[in-house]
Design goal:
Blueprint: E1 3-6, E2 9-12, E3 14-16, E4 19-21, E5 28-33, E6 38-44, H1 48-67, H2 70-86, H3 88-99, H4 103-121, H5 123-126, E7 131-136, E8 139-147, E9 150-154, H6 162-173, E10 177-181, H7 188-199, E11 207-209, H8 214-222, E12 226-232, H9 235-247, E13 251-255, E14 260-264, H10 270-282, E15 292-297, H11 301-314, H12 335-350, E16 354-357, E17 376-379, H13 386-389, E18 396-399, H14 405-413, E19 420-424, H15 428-437, E20 442-445, E21 465-466, H16 473-479, E22 481-489
Parallel strand pairs: 2-6, 9-10, 9-12, 10-11, 12-13, 14-15, 14-19, 15-18, 17-18, 19-20
Antiparallel strand pairs: 1-2, 3-4, 5-6, 7-8, 8-22, 13-21, 16-17
Helix pairs in contact: 1-8, 2-4, 2-7, 3-4, 3-7, 4-6, 10-11, 14-15
Bound molecules: nicotinamide-adenine-dinucleotide.
Amino acid sequence: MAVVESKAITTCKLLIDGKWTEVKTNEFTKVTNPSTGEIIAQTPMCGAKEVDLAVQSAERAFPAWAETPIVERTRVMFKFKALLEKNYDDIAKLVSREHGKTIAEAKASVFRGMEVVEFALGIPSLIMGECMENIATNVDCETMRHPLGVCVGITPFNFPAMVPLWMYPIALTCGNTFVLKPSEKVPLTAMFIAELLLEAGLPAGVFNIVHGGKESVDALLTHPKVKAISFVGSTPIAKYIYEVGTAHGKRVQSAGGAKNHIIIMPDADMDQTVQALQASAFGCAGERCMAGSLAVPVGSAADEVMERLVESSKKMKVGPTHEGGSYDMGPLVTKDHLTKVKSIIEKGAAEGADLVLDGRKIEVKEAPNGFYLGPTIFDKVKPGTTLVKEEIFGPVLSVVRVNSVDEAIELGNACPFGNGAVIFTNSGHAAREFKHRFNAGMIGINVGVPAPMAWFPFTGWNNSFYGDLHIQGRESIQFYTQQKMTMTRWFGASKGSTFKDPIWKGKNQ
Ligand code: NAD
């Protein structure tokens, strides 16, 4: 059992050596159902001692797992995929219960995670090295990819299933062992899915879970047996993880926060654009690193977009999601996060932007203790203000009106983040200019949320990513492996060529 019932609430356990292990601590973070405000579990805030147990478990399991033929490692993933499918509805419900996504959003996110498992199933082909015969006379050369050892995943609250699944299916299939430190705010989904890994036949110790916050993360970053760290979270912590991890000799990929611009040209298909803009800004209550949080209508596009967007956003139904229902948007993850987002709204209004839709006025009578905020829209936001500079991570859309695509690109390129950027247009020229010149790693052309699928890397730029090799796609296989080059000569194997290179003639022959 992944959890222990203590008094009224459930305490999360660690997964070490394939067994769920209780932690002795007095420090906990409460896990709430944000739809109701009810406490549903508590996460033990672990330290160096528990981290060492988890890393040692992974270290012990590594030699046998690394030597397990890759097709056998992949077969475990096939079984895991089947179990994810079988438990799809329950996983989505759990995501919704601890995070607040609507069931449809939760299902979509789990599906995206399952696609990473599908990608990992192809690793026997994708991991193959290169070889060349007779690179010199009787000399052959080849490269092979080897696993690294103990890899670590540290994940954020906003995708309890998907973001951990970005990491370990690939790391494990490549032959590494893994320690996951899920967000202390949403640990339950990660634990439920870990049970499926065990059920799929993953040997004990190959996958481990440790809980906590800064203290456990610091212990992971500095542990001598940890070889690589995958992190997803906010920018200040992403930068910290990269700096401390690399200073301790780890390979690090560290994805941070975002401020994704959505440019709307006057020639865009307005029906499609308004629908996509609304979904991008308010889907998952804006708690997405690829959310379109800053709309930039160009010239005459502004009035039409604003009028239609405000009208349609007003109609969005906000309410409790954990039992299904037909709500368009759920709550924010915690009361603290709700308070933080509300304080940014206050600041935005104080800085002079037009608050044309105020989500703070929302009332959810059926769940009065939930952490709700309705869709919020600021128009005529000035460049350089808080609403333009800061990631808000809630259902708050800021709108900066500009007069040309050049001005829109210039505004975007002044942004310190660089995750995603989108243009809605029917002009090939405007789209090409935007695609070529915009300083962000993931570009959408008439696509509201250009989050790549598992087969492509999640290519954040600037302060949205620290490291060299991104999460997902072939880059992730490079991240979780190291290459070995072997050069071979067998004396007398063949007579070799009689060709003499004219440059060398008379020198060493
Ligand atoms: P967060 O940075 O607060 O936490 C992320 C992880 O870091 C958690 O596991 C947490 O326990 C740990 N952590 C928190 N404070 C720490 C500290 N001081 N030292 C060491 N570790 C610490 O992020 P969050 O609030 O959980 O998630 C939201 C953020 O994640 C947003 O900024 C969002 O844009 C970002 N995100 C980015 C991507 C991406 O691919 N770029 C994807 C999803 C989320």
